[in-house]
Amino acid sequence: MVGRQLTGSLVSQRSLFLMPGVLLTIGLLTLWPVLGQASPGEVAFLLLDCVVLVGFGVARGASLRLTSTPDGLWQKGTGTTLLLWLLTIGIRIGGALVSQAIWPHNAVSEASLVFTIGVTIAAQSAMIYRRAQQLHIPLVAQRA
User: Fold this and answer.
1) Alpha-carbon Rg of the chain, whole angstroms?
2) Which of 24, 97, 133, 136 has the fewest CB atoms within 10 Å, i.e. is most exposed?
3) What's the confidence (pLDDT) of residue 138?
4) For the segment 79-126, what is each residue's pLDDT rounded down to a tens digit?
5) pLDDT category, 144, cuts 50, 70, 90?
């Protein structure tokens, strides 16, 4: 996905929302059973992690070049997009390490990986969609 963004790709509604939807669904199914045993600190840390990752997702979505083609919306990443992806990955790894250091048997941190990836990709997709709407660039039509 990152490579496709950096080299450029057409954007459809499916490409914007299918992957984050699947990741969020799987993530919630994995995370939900352990939330009942989580301490308030673990839950607060997860929420903080999500807020930060939403911010990075929005920033990545804003950093992409969006252009209109005869087929529809085209996205292409910039150097800033790559830097933001590297920072997102670093923040996620750092957050997991800090969480594990504070709560050594933190099931929430382990169970939240897929969910938090879904959160940041969903935020990025929402920003791309918003920008496309503001620029009046239609998404690529799905082929049957």
Assistant:
1) 17
2) 136
3) 92
4) 999 999 999 999 989 988 898 888 888 788 888 889 999 999 999 999
5) very low
Q: Report d(CA 94, CA 48) in Å as an integer.
A: 13
Which amino acid does the sequence have at 125?
S
Instruction: Tell the burial category of 30 from Cβ atoms under 10 Å away from its Cβ (0-12, 13-18, 19+).
Output: middle
Please report the DSSP string for the chain in residue order.
-HHHHHH-EE-BHHHHHHHHHHHHHHHHHHHHHHHTT--HHHHHHHHHHHHHHHHHHHHHHHHSEEEEETTEEEEE--HHHHHHHHHHHHHHHHHHHHHHHHSTT-HHHHHTHHHHHHHHHHHHHHHHHHHHHHHT-PPBPPP-
Pairing mode, strands 9-10 and 65-69: unpaired
The answer to whether the beta carbons of residues 122 and 24 sit under 8 Å apart is yes
- Sorted by sequence, the CB contacts under 8 Å of residue 101 that are 6+ apart come out as none
pLDDT tens digit sequence for 12-62:
999 899 999 999 999 999 999 998 888 899 999 999 999 999 999 999 999
